[in-house]
Amino acid sequence: MTQTETLVKLNPELVFELWSKTYNREGKPDWSHIFPYYHSSIIFQDSIQKVVGKDDFVDMCNRLTERCQSLHMDLLNVLQKDNTIFIEWIMTMSFKKSPDTPLYGSTRLTLNEEGYIIEQRDYYDLWGDIFNNIPRFNKMYRKFLQKYFG
Predict the structure, then answer these.
(1) Were 131 and a residue from 53, 106, 141, 148 both cysteine, which residue would form a disulfide, CB within 3.0 to 4.6 Å?
(2) CA 144 – CA 3 distance, rounded (Å)
(3) pLDDT tens digits for the chain (150 residues)?
(4) In this structure, are strands 117-124 and 101-111 parallel, antiparallel, or unpaired?
(5) 98 in a structural domain
(6) Ordered DSSP codes for 10-64
(7) Interatomic CA distance for residues 109 and 93, integer angstroms
(8) Does some domain include residue 4?
(9) Which domain holds residue 70?
């Protein structure tokens, strides 16, 4: 699909449907059906990286697919205000030789006038969610945070 073709305008119901198809209960995710909704100049940012451009965004998604044994996402809420859609989620990743790791987070999608996703910002506590799964270390990490930041 080219950037000039008309897509069904994203709304909370469609986002829920499309993103629910993306992440499987078993195995690797497939983003191919949502990539057409991303603008060629997409700006993606999360706790780890900032990616500019659809080609680099697609490459980033493919790298994540290669690294994970499995990856799935439970969508809790999808809300919209004007040209912004918010998604609250729990993403569970499985890597080689490690337990399933749930990450709790949210995504802000910003749509341009044509309805394409021009910006995506993912928010999550990567280290806290990972460290919670490491016996004994999880308590030390939380005490450290409370002492210095809480």
Answers:
(1) 141
(2) 48
(3) 445 556 789 999 999 999 988 776 566 778 889 999 999 999 999 988 999 999 999 999 988 878 777 778 899 999 999 999 999 999 887 766 666 778 899 999 999 999 999 999 999 887 766 666 666 776 777 777 667 666
(4) antiparallel
(5) yes
(6) P-HHHHHHHHHHHS-SSS----TTTGGGEEEEEEEE-SS-EEESHHHHHHHHHHH
(7) 22
(8) no
(9) 12-125
- The 10 Å Cβ neighbour count of residue 87 is 21
Predicted local distance difference test score (pLDDT) of residue 97: 66
Which residue, 108, 110, 70, 109, is CA-closest to 91?
70
pLDDT of residue 95: 66
| Domains of the chain: total | 1
Round the CA-based radius of gyration of the chain to a whole number and report it.
17
Separation CA 42–CA 81 (nearest Å): 20
Element (H, E) at 136: none
Q: Record the tokens describing residue 35, joined without a space.
A: 């990539």
CATH number at residue 34: 3.10.450.50
Provide the whole-model pTM: 0.81
